[in-house]
Amino acid sequence: MAASIPFTGLNSSRVLPIPSQPYPSSHFPSNMLKLAPFRTPSAYSSSVSCSATRDPSSVVPLEQLHNLDNGSVLPNRPDSFGRFGKFGGKYVPETLMHALTELEAAFHSLTADEQFQTELAAILKDYVGRESPLYFAERLTEHYKRPNGEGPHIYLKREDLNHTGAHKINNAVAQALLAKSLGKKRIIAETGAGQHGVATATVCARFGLECIIYMGAQDMERQSLNVFRMRLLGAEVRAVHSGTATLKDATSEAIRDWVTNVETTHYILGSVAGPHPYPMMVRDFHAVIGKETRKQALEKWGGKPDVLIACIGGGSNAMGLFTEFVDDKDVRLIGVEAAGFGLDSGKHAATLTKGEVGVLHGAMSYLLQDDDGQIVEPHSISAGLDYPGVGPEHSFLKDLGRAEYHSITDNEALEAFKRVSRLEGIIPALETSHALAYLEKVCPTLPNGTKVVVNFSGRGDKDVQTAIKYLDV
């Protein structure tokens, strides 16, 4: 029987069920104790630790964040508690606290180490193929010209040209090097669309590491090509049949594995979600996307982009692009979520548009949840966006008003998939197609000559079998 306490501190008066007894660590719930931070510490300290607990008065109010002495738009992100404003933190079982502390220390040590940076840069250049081009999409630009000949200029940041075909390899390579430094030779990961799974399997093959990938059974069906690629690379792919058999459930299974094997195993989490330090760490390993974009924009037109657009599932490709420009107030940041069958259908994955604040997979963020605080099944035609949560820094940027978040339906994404293929000769991933589809809505509103950069986060070979079912070509 569950007791109830007020769900406080989140601009909500809703009362949510709190189990009256702590969960044994061996039976830790799949949503990583969604409500753990609101338990009484004395009663539950043996089952959960939250490093983010602090005096609410120490949180800088959002309205003050634009007036910092150093002129920055935002403070250091995250703070020493692993929080982005009220979002983020470590809502995890005690079993994982040491591993997370060890991981954070190794991350800070290695990112300050010149030898590590040199090795990582060499691998990104020679193995991954960086830097990725900033490509002027001439025919797409022509498509969005108004009758008077004016319109924005569209550029594509070609992460699809990376080894393995997506942005995911940036983070996977860096985390594999980090795991080696920790002496951990067993690697686990979750995957939805399969791109992170392929990237992880690839770097494990490269460095001779054992690799286990958790993937929802439904996603394995619609991404069978990537499942074969992972197995070809030597990874064991474990099907997850629980829940909705998609990304959320694969993540939960990967966390269960990590809890059990934490001493020998490193978890290469694939997005800017999860407990601290993952949102910070994954963001920083993908920040190369934005750094290159700034350099390339300066080379191509002598300035900065005016508008950045990226799709949002967990949000790693978007944070990789946005982070470099967050403090540039004149650069517009646009994230595009999956509206599925429509925002009013209940079948979507538009977490930032329709979600409420809660805790999932170890971090506080916006979630898709019902009135009882239970996770609502998301839907998207793209497996990589089919997730009911989002990275905590995106939640922070949303509440701050620094980034804007919009949504695109399955049908709109499919039309963009076809349109960009035919106009530019580049087949985009269905995830990327959501960002490309938003051009239809934003381009008519932009001044002439506006420089728009879309993060072309992945190629669409993996999605052709899905697209065949819906598109008449």
Automatic annotation (TrEMBL):
Does this entry carry the keyword Amino-acid biosynthesis? yes
Keyword Lyase applies: yes
PROSITE patterns membership: TRP_SYNTHASE_BETA
GO MF entries = tryptophan synthase activity
- Could you tell me which pathway this protein works in? Amino-acid biosynthesis; L-tryptophan biosynthesis; L-tryptophan from chorismate: step 5/5
Stored InterPro entries: Trp_synth_b_CS (IPR006653), Trp_synth_beta (IPR006654), Trp_synth_beta/beta-like (IPR023026), TrpB-like_PALP (IPR001926), TrpB-like_PALP_sf (IPR036052)
Q: What is its EC number?
A: 4.2.1.20
Alphabetical GO CC annotations of the entry are:
chloroplast stroma
Report the catalytic activity. Answer: (1S,2R)-1-C-(indol-3-yl)glycerol 3-phosphate + L-serine = D-glyceraldehyde 3-phosphate + L-tryptophan + H2O
**Database matches in SUPFAM superfamilies:** Tryptophan synthase beta subunit-like PLP-dependent enzymes
Organism superkingdom: Eukaryota
CDD domains hit by this protein: Trp-synth_B (cd06446)
PANTHER family the record matches? TRYPTOPHAN SYNTHASE (PTHR48077:SF3), TRYPTOPHAN SYNTHASE-RELATED (PTHR48077)
Task: Quote the protein name from its UniProt record.
Answer: Tryptophan synthase
* Species per Swiss-Prot/TrEMBL record: Phaseolus coccineus (Scarlet runner bean)
